[in-house]
Write a structure and sequence with these properties.
Blueprint lengths: L9 H8 L2 E7 L3 H7 L3 H7 L4 E6 L13 E4 L6 H6 L3 E5 L7 H4 L5 H9 L14 H4 L11 E5 L19 H11 L4 E5 L11 E3 L5 H10 L2 E5 L2 H8 L5 E4 L4 H4 L5 E4 L37 H6 L2
Parallel strand pairs: 1-2, 1-4, 2-3, 5-6, 5-8, 6-7, 8-9, 9-10
């Protein structure tokens, strides 16, 4: 029997069930992407009625996160405009936190700058990476006869102009001293770029590994001596206290209180920053900017050892 007084309006029903989206675009290195995971939970709570769509450089670190509905890699998002933008109820965040005043002046952490852009309250959020059942088994790749120590001596993109980047890489003299001190007690795994300097008495890892294989190494290791690179972000995500060396970058901006952060000693600069605009040191092509005459001007080895 036909119901009286009811008019079928398909457009009204469509409006009622229309989905809402939030698109967050994160470009940059692996460490930056890992830092971004710290805000997914808050993003979902604040924009609870929207599906979270991530467009990122490193999708792997966002997979398995229950607060994310879809993950796309930058440059590989077919039909994205039609699916999420055209005539859709969507909010798009495509900002660069590195251009924020708090980042340029080194007064705010990367995550706090993102909070300002996303409209989220900063509460010292920490990165979160979700590992599935199979990925947990990858820790078995790093079982050795002795406890494992990770020694990250270089990081950043491959094919840099110089094999050693003084702003972030560990000085070879420091690395050699640490190996000599700990090689009998630990199986030392050196993480480095392909063109990174060699060390004696270590297992060298300079080939491409999946991110989860690298993270498994952090989890298996009993000690972690890192630099400002993706692994110190990942260690924070897995709540693994590490010793982190800082030279041309700052733990205030990129670091975590969980770690034992050792910052290179301040030194008098002359006129090396002739090419600097909004940031002091470049990560590449910056040999002339180095203010240190000797490695002893950077770090005290005894201080590093005390914090391992």
């Amino acid at each position: 029997m036909k119901q009286q007084g009811y008019v079928y309006k398909p457009q009204a029903i469509e409006a009622e069930i229309k989905e809402k989206y939030l698109v967050w675009h994160i470009q940059g290195g692996l460490g930056k992407n890992i830092a971004g995971t710290a805000l997914i939970r808050d993003l979902k709570e604040f924009y609870f009625d929207r599906k979270i769509i991530m467009v990122v450089s490193y999708p792997e670190v966002f997979l398995n996160n229950p607060n994310i509905d879809r993950v796309y890699q930058i440059g590989n998002a077919p039909y994205f405009y039609q699916d999420y933008i055209e005539n859709k109820d969507v909010i798009v965040f495509k900002h660069e936190p590195y251009d924020q005043t708090g980042h340029i002046t080194k007064t705010k952490h990367l995550i706090e700058n993102w909070c300002d852009l996303l409209g989220i309250t900063f509460t010292n959020q920490q990165p979160e990476i979700y590992v599935n059942y199979i990925q947990k088994m990858t820790t078995g790749l790093w079982k050795r006869n002795k406890p494992v120590m990770v020694l990250q001596t270089s990081g950043g993109p491959a094919n840099q102009q110089y094999s050693y980047s003084w702003t972030r890489d560990m000085p070879i003299e420091v690395a050699e001293e640490l190996v000599n001190r700990y090689k009998n007690e630990y199986h030392i795994v050196q993480i480095t770029r392909v063109d990174g300097y060699p060390l004696e008495g270590v297992e060298r890892v300079d080939k491409s590994l999946s991110n989860m294989e690298l993270f498994a190494l952090l989890i298996e290791a009993k000690k972690r001596i890192l630099i400002d690179s993706c692994l110190q972000h990942a260690a924070a995500a897995f709540k693994l206290t590490s010793t982190v060396l800082w030279i041309g970058t700052s733990p205030i901006v990129f670091g975590y209180d969980l770690h034992k952060n050792i910052t290179a000693k301040l030194t008098t600069r002359a006129n090396q920053l002739i090419g600097s605009y909004l940031f002091d040191y470049q990560f590449e092509n910056n040999a002339h900017e180095c203010p240190y005459i000797d490695v002893k001007d950077m770090f005290s080895l005894d201080e590093i050892v005390r914090n391992i």
